[in-house]
Specification:
Layout lengths: L15 H36 L3 H14 L1
Helix pairs in contact: 1-2
């Protein structure tokens, strides 16, 4: 008879690594959102004046940056 092979890594239960990742990612995501909300009233008008672009285009750019980070 042959011995049973070890289960592939993908099927193993998540452990400490997943717990740490969840404990770090969600607070940082909340902090990033809070910073964007607090800075938006200052940065949006300033960016509109400095770049000469429409407010909608600047907001779309901010959303794009938020998605990248």
């Amino acid at each position: 008879m042959t011995e049973a092979a070890a289960p592939p890594k993908a099927s193993r239960r998540p452990g400490l690594r997943a717990l740490v990742m969840s404990a770090v990612v969600y607070p940082l995501l909340f902090l990033q959102t809070l910073i964007f909300i607090l800075l938006a009233p200052v940065v949006l008008p300033l960016a509109t004046v400095l770049t000469g672009r429409s407010l909608g285009r600047i907001v779309r750019y901010f959303i794009w940056i938020y998605g990248k980070v």
